[in-house]
Amino acid sequence: MSSRASAARYARALLDVVITEGNPEQVDEDLAAFAALVAGAPDLQRALTNPAVPVSAKRGILDTLLSRVTSSGPLAKLLQLLADRDRLGIAGDLAAGYHERLMEHRQVVRAEVVTATPLAPERLAWFEQRLASATGRRVTMSARVDPTLIGGAVARVGSLVYDGSIATQLAKIRERLEKTA
Q1: Which of 6, 52, 119, 162 has a CB 3.0–4.6 Å from the CB of 155, allowing a cystine?
Q2: How far apart are CA 95 and CA 33, in angstroms?
Q3: Do 96 and 14 belong together in one domain?
Q4: In this predicted structure, what is the pLDDT of residue 1?
């Protein structure tokens, strides 16, 4: 099984436990902080993922790290289980998978709006409201500028794309003209 697939299974199980026993948002923050700490310290990352380092040493490092951060019981138990199974290398994928599952549970979707020029805050709020009504979920927005669009906007919600850009409209017109010529 790939590391992403196993991380997704651990993330799903962790969320199931945390929803009944704890604070899912706090676990999300703690897990992201742990993954960032490991990713940001190459020596620590090597020590936790190197198969030559004994599991007992990894567990000791993990216990030291957990004593310095506030982590919930279920998260600490999962990280200790991963240390015992020599699987701490999936911490980054686990954090990403847990965050995705938490957003699904809270019925929040991420959306990105790409425009040719920067959007005013009220226009961004308008897009957020429209996408929320289209998806039936709460939306967290990000905006990006791409001058090649010429005008209009492209909105991405998950794998769904709403393309209202002038560049795409011109390409469609060109295609129709070429077919009729």
Answers
A1: 162
A2: 9
A3: yes
A4: 58
